[in-house]
Design goal:
By secondary structure, the protein is mostly beta strands. The protein has one domain (3-166). Helix content is 5%, strand content 34%. It is built from one helix and 14 strands; from the N terminus they run βββββββββββββαβ. The chain has one helix spanning 148-155, and strands at residues 3-8, 11-15, 21-23, 30-31, 41-42, 44-53, 67-69, 74-77, 88-90, 97-99, 109-113, 129-132, 144-146, 163-166. Strands 1, 2, 3, 6, 7, 11, 12, 13 and 14 form a nine-stranded mixed sheet that branches. The chain has a three-stranded antiparallel sheet with strand order 9-8-10, with no helix packed on it. Strands 4-5 form a two-stranded parallel ribbon. The radius of gyration is 15 Å and the shape is globular. It starts with a strand and ends with a strand.
Length: 167
C-alpha cells in the first residue's frame, strides 16, 4: 500500500485510503527535481527506506519498517561533492550536513524516502523526507510534511517496499 501525495486546489494532501490529510510540500511545488536546493518536491514513487524518531519527545512508533532513534549528533549530508552526500552522518561533519536533532520538532518523526539514493547522483537533491509539518503547514524545502498524528497513522500502515507516490 502506498501513500499518495497530490494537489487539491491550492494545497497538497496525502491519502492512504483513510481520507485525505493536509500536507506541506516545497515552495516550488511538485515537479521533476532540478537539483539541490531548488524547493521542488520531486514527482515519482519513492520507497520508504527507514524511519527515525526522537524517543525523548514521542513514543516508539508502531511501524513495520526499519526504525531508529534519532541521536543528538545525527546529520544528513547535503554537500554534493562529498562521498557521503544524501546519507546519514555524525556531527560535527567535515562537509555541509543538516541537523536531524532539531529544536522545532519538525524531525521528531522522519521517514527517509528513496530519492537519489540508489545510486546517489551528486547535486540531484538530498534529504527528501516525510516529516512533521509546521502548525500552519507552510512550505518545506522539498519534503512532504504532515501533522504528527497524521504522519504516525500513515506510517503505521506501511509494509516493507511501500512508497510515497508524489503526483
Amino acid at each position: 500500500m502506498d501513500l499518495h501525495v497530490t494537489m487539491r486546489g491550492d494545497h497538497a494532501v496525502l491519502d492512504w485510503g483513510a481520507g485525505a490529510r493536509r500536507a506541506a510540500i516545497g515552495p516550488a511545488g511538485i515537479a521533476v527535481k532540478g537539483g539541490e536546493g531548488d524547493g521542488i518536491t520531486p514527482r515519482g514513487r519513492f520507497v520508504v527506506r527507514e524511519i527515525f524518531y526522537r524517543a525523548d519527545r514521542i513514543a516508539k512508533p508502531a511501524v513495520k519498517l526499519p526504525l531508529h532513534v534519532t541521536q543528538p549528533d545525527d546529520g544528513w549530508c547535503d554537500a554534493p561533492d562529498d562521498p557521503n552526500y544524501n546519507r546519514l552522518v555524525k556531527l560535527p561533519y567535515r562537509a555541509s550536513a543538516e541537523k536531524m536533532w532539531r529544536d522545532d520538532g519538525l524531525y521528531d518523526l522522519v521517514a527517509v524516502l528513496g530519492y537519489n539514493d540508489d545510486p546517489v547522483v551528486p547535486g540531484k537533491g538530498s534529504a527528501i523526507f516525510l516529516h512533521i509539518a509546521r502548525p500552519d503547514h507552510s512550505a518545506t524545502h522539498g519534503c512532504v510534511a504532515l501533522a504528527l498524528a497524521d504522519a504516525l497513522a500513515a506510517l503505521e500502515q506501511l509494509q516493507p517496499g511501500d512508497a510515497v507516490v508524489i503526483e
